[in-house]
Write a structure and sequence with these properties.
Structural class of chain A: mainly alpha
Shape of chain A: flat
Distance between the termini of chain B: 64 Å
Distance between the termini of chain A: 48 Å
Largest sheet of chain B: 2 strands, antiparallel
Number of domains of chain A: 2
Oligomer: heterodimer
Shape of chain B: globular
Order of helices and strands of chain A: HEEHHHHH
Low-confidence stretches of chain A: 1-8
Strand order of the largest sheet of chain B: 1-2
Radius of gyration of chain A: 24 Å
Number of domains of chain B: 1
Largest interface: A-B, 65 and 57 residues
Helix content of chain B: over 70%
Number of helices of chain B: 21
Largest sheet of chain A: 2 strands, antiparallel
Low-confidence stretches of chain B: none
Strand content of chain B: under 5%
Chain lengths: ~170, ~500
């Protein structure tokens, strides 16, 4: 990493994220244990009940995440390492936000159009390629995927109005 | 010599034009997967797994295991030319491989890496051929307590051999178990952890988790570093290959040591990465040129590559014989077996002879094919790496989305993939290991049912795990491994207290 974590300013510290994640894990563990108790985590006439095994799993998640949480509380004052730098976070958002929009697109208009648009726009905006090249790569990937899945392997992928207009 | 007969039978199974074609397709895809960021062995196999559902299982496993070999070879290319380890076990290869490339000896480094990978894999496959039937025969006598003890050993060895915070390893592993428990309980038929969501009835599919955690998570990590990376160019021609081959016999001692380390460590889960580091460290200590390690010594490439490939191959040994994978990729292959309707474990050697020996024969041929493909096509693969990340990144996201969707033809899985991707990124940054989570997710149901059956046998008493010397030994060993990091930490603290006081 190019940045010195000690001199960098801004951004959440790693130890704080560590604490938050440990807290979330603890909640998940508690939820697992709770649901297991609801189902019955003890011994029935015919053997262990459905919650028997998961109850211990939930308990172990709680114990281990509690220890991780305590460990990060102990480091809270002196650990100054930043979890993610501002410009790094920006870089991540450059792919994460379009990807989320892409998955939304897959749900609405099918995977082929969304993929072509996603790749083309990403290349155009994030990679600063010319329109022609961006659209060509995007379209090519979609066409290859279409031939591979719909025609060769006959595995149907999500499709939208355009594909149904073409008879698929 | 029963094994040799079976092996020859295996070769007759593999040597059909269709299977040979799949082998080369698999190797090529595997190398591409190993070379591209965000598409490692586990993730690549996970994405391609749905395509094999319609194939005969033997052909499917040949292709998928060849993808695995290809990914192992591919990791070396990125390490040497770009100083980017494609897989965790190629980290040690960068130490001497990249300096060699900087000195213009990339061809030599690559030839050395590929050849020693091949040697490591070959030794491991020979061991596999003779050891696997024995272990399988032995494991046929296993009952539920023995199986649970082996599972316990598998998971405890993550804690015992893993670097980093043991509590994070346990938390990550238990999260995997919890995710495996979601859905209909196979024994009582009750719904567990679904909280009224019908989408959760069938639980989390491990393939979706693998694609998200490894694929999308890796893309996010790579994006953090920015969109550009630069690499050294590679020229490989027959002259360089022959010259390097002439040098390699000099390192026979390193090679043998690395094979032994690799074979041994590979059987232990997550073993390939520690095996490559250990082998590099020992080679540096034992070599006459030890002081020059790190400045571009061929021996420093031979050692980790031999061990990593030997470990990667022997990771399949517990997967096939006991149904317990030694690495995330082996876990995905195991998941594949289940989907094709094969029950991994000792019975495979009795009931599915064609499949098992076909797989073993394909290990021999696949590695030969791999060596040929990588030695002839390095410039091509390096060219793929030079395609800018702004083009590669969205294409990989698209491939991952297709892979996640085809698992169950379910749109929810594509969303889950994104969530797992963010989770994978956060876990990587906080040093929560992902491999134990994936293994727990794959093995969760099997581990749970062997635990419940054991409990039924003993009417709820834990003493069943010490009821004979075998199961008792396994359980005790597992608990010792679990306690190991705590013992080390305690000892260090005591020593520190002694020094200060």
């Amino acid at each position: 990493m190019a940045h010195d974590p000690r001199t960098a300013s801004g951004g959440t510290r790693t130890v704080v994220v560590d604490l938050v994640v440990a807290g979330l894990m603890f909640a998940v563990g508690a939820l697992v244990a709770y649901d297991s108790v609801r189902l019955g985590a003890s011994w029935a006439s015919d053997g262990p009940q459905a919650g028997y095994f998961p109850f211990y799993i939930g308990t172990l998640i709680c114990i281990s995440s509690a220890v991780v949480g305590v460990q990060s509380v102990l480091r809270l004052a002196r650990d100054a390492e930043v979890f993610v730098q501002k410009d790094q976070l920006k870089q991540i958002m450059v792919i994460l936000l379009p990807s989320t929009a892409y998955v939304l697109g897959v749900q609405w208009i099918g995977i082929y159009i969304s993929s072509a648009v996603f790749i083309a726009l990403f290349m155009r905006i994030a990679g600063r390629y010319g329109w022609w090249r961006s659209v060509a790569v995007g379209a090519m990937v979609s066409v290859i995927a279409f031939v591979l899945f719909e025609i060769w392997f006959t595995i149907p992928l999500p499709k939208g109005p355009l594909e149904s207009a073409l008879g698929y | 010599m029963e094994e040799l007969n079976a092996l020859f039978h295996g070769f007759t199974v593999v040597l059909t034009p269709f299977n040979l074609m799949l082998m080369f397709v698999g190797i090529t895809l595997g190398v591409i997967i190993g070379v591209l960021p965000g598409l490692g062995g586990a993730n690549g196999v996970a994405i391609l797994l749905p395509l094999t559902f319609t194939m005969p299982p033997t052909s499917a496993i040949i292709m998928l295991s060849c993808i695995y070999w290809g990914a192992l070879f591919g990791g070396a290319i990125t390490s040497i030319l770009f100083n980017i380890p494609g897989e965790p076990w190629s980290v040690a290869t960068t130490f001497d491989g990249y300096p060699m490339a900087q000195q213009g000896r990339a061809g030599e480094a690559l030839t050395g890496a590929f050849t020693s990978s091949f040697v490591g894999a070959l030794v491991a496959v020979v061991m596999f051929t003779f050891l696997a039937p024995l272990i399988a025969k032995f494991a046929l006598q296993f009952g539920p307590p023995e199986f649970f003890a082996v599972y316990l050993l598998t998971f405890c060895s993550f804690v015992g051999t893993g670097k980093g915070n043991p509590f994070k390893i346990i938390a990550s592993m238990m999260l995997g178990f919890a995710m495996a428990a979601v859905g209909i309980d196979i024994i009582t038929g009750q719904l567990r952890l679904t909280f009224g969501f019908t989408e959760l009835l069938s639980g989390f599919h491990f393939l979706v988790a693998v694609i998200g955690l490894f694929g999308i998570g890796e893309i996010l990590l790579s994006m953090e570093e920015g969109l550009s990376f630069s690499g050294k160019s590679a020229k490989i021609n027959p002259r360089i290959v022959l010259e390097t081959w002439r040098k390699l016999p000099r390192y026979w001692a390193t090679s043998i040591r690395s094979c032994i380390i690799g074979c041994w460590m590979g059987i232990i889960p997550g073993g390939a990465t520690p095996a490559s580091f250990m082998s590099y460290g020992i080679a540096r200590k034992m070599s006459r040129d030890g002081a020059k390690f790190g400045n571009g010594q061929l021996e420093g490439v031979v050692a980790p590559e031999t061990a990593a490939h030997a470990a990667g191959t022997s990771a399949l040994l517990p997967m096939i014989t006991l149904g317990i994978p030694g690495s995330p990729t082996a876990a995905v292959l195991l998941g594949g077996l289940l989907i094709w309707g094969l029950q991994p474990g000792p019975l495979l050697f009795v009931e599915q002879k064609d499949f098992v020996w076909g797989l073993i024969a394909s290990m021999y041929l696949g590695n030969v094919a791999g060596l040929i493909v990588v030695l002839t096509a390095v410039p091509l693969f390096a060219a793929i790496l030079r395609v800018p990340f702004a083009i590669i990144a969205p294409i990989i996201v698209v491939i991952c989305a297709i892979g996640a969707f085809t698992v169950k033809n379910n749109m929810l899985d594509v969303w889950l993939m994104l969530v797992f991707g963010i989770m994978g990124y956060v876990f990587k940054k906080l040093d929560y290991p992902i491999a134990p989570l994936v293994l727990a997710l794959v093995l969760g149901d099997a581990a749970e049912s062997s635990f419940r059956q054991s409990m039924l046998i003993s009417q709820g008493s834990l003493t069943v795990f010490w009821s004979n010397w075998l199961v008792g030994g396994l359980t005790t060993l597992a608990l010792a491994l679990l306690a190991w990091p705590f013992y080390v930490a305690l000892r260090e603290r005591l020593r520190a207290a002694e020094q200060s006081g």
